[in-house]
Amino acid sequence: MEDDESDLDIMLLMLDNIARASTKSANQIERPVCRPITDIGYDYIQKALAEKHEHFRSLYRMYPESFEKLCVLIRMKTCLRDTRHICVEEMVATFLLTVGQSSKYCYTIDTFKRSVFATSENFHKVLKALNTIAPDLMAKPGVTTCAKIRESTRFFPYFKDCIGAIDGTHIFAMIPKDDVPSYRNRKGSVSHNVLAACNFDLQFIYVLSGWEGSAHDSKVLNDALTRNTCNLEVPDGKYYLVDCGFANRQKFLAPFRSTRYHLQEFRGQGCDPGNPNELFNLRHASLRNVIERIFGIFKSRFLIFKSAPPFSFKMQAELVLACAGLHNFLRKECRSDAFPVEVINTDPKEVNIFEDNGDVGTLESQQREYANNWRNMIASSMWADALGNGSQR
């Protein structure tokens, strides 16, 4: 009798264990079948680094030497390290292939033979690392007059204290449906307005992304100047060139309105400037054109910005800063920008003219009056010298 009870207890215990095991199994989420661990990605990037440099540059937007220096910099300045099966070089190559070719993850997955999860993780790790070092990669405002101005009688001494140019550019964005109206720009596209300042060596000094596409450039600039962190600082005695989308004021020199300004308006026979304001605008536009050039180089190098990147909006904004830092790194390490440059539309009819609503304080009104007088003095001096030299260009 005791043996029967003992056997029964054992059977009940076994049934209880089986029931517990089946319940636990039912509550667990079955993991997808993972790709087998492979060294194909590592072997691929090592082989690519050793082959034709031009082919590597066309794929990864930089030469192998610059690529290796970038990986060294990332290792030194960030926490990104090789994992057990994936090296930093492969992670960086994954990121560059995605932003440089606007390639989908499926292409990158096929190239490096990694899972979707591993590919996404690598991309995000490098994006985080680049955003960590991007502030250090931004160019510092010049203290002395740059060579482009100093060595030209067209620009010196009139623009001797100018350190660069500022403008906004629109980058396509993927936005939640409810927010689309705010991000639709004047051309009807959904975008975010990116404000950038650059020097005359085609390097970014400051980048602010994430503003709605419908926002006016002057509003974005005011935010850049007044924000508590990561604000735009202009050294005393220096200034940037801006277009008619901004007010003329101290530290931001705008052209004369209701006057020819764009370079194409001065091309051809009989199109020379006919007065001080037109001459000032021509030379102002010639210098300020650097911001249009840097936007063109930026968008031609990083083709992911040709369409809306398929990420969260926060990540889309971070991606702009990361690629701006990359651009500056490459300007120092790889001077050639021989990609088909994006042509920026500068049609005068599409210029977002700054409109003064009249609601300005006394101090700001005085500053604008001072800035207008300062601009008039530059134009008058420039015109007098041009007449004396017999050149009105």
From TrEMBL:
The keyword Nucleus applies. Its main location: nucleus. GO terms for molecular function: hydrolase activity; metal ion binding; nuclease activity. This is Uncharacterized protein. GO terms for cellular component: nucleus. Residues 41-130 form the DUF8040 domain. Belongs to the HARBI1 family. Residues 166-328 form the DDE Tnp4 domain. It comes from the Eukaryota. Keywords: Hydrolase, Metal-binding, Nuclease, Nucleus. InterPro entries: DUF8040, HARBI1-like, HARBI1_dom. Its cofactor is a divalent metal cation. It is found in: Nucleus.
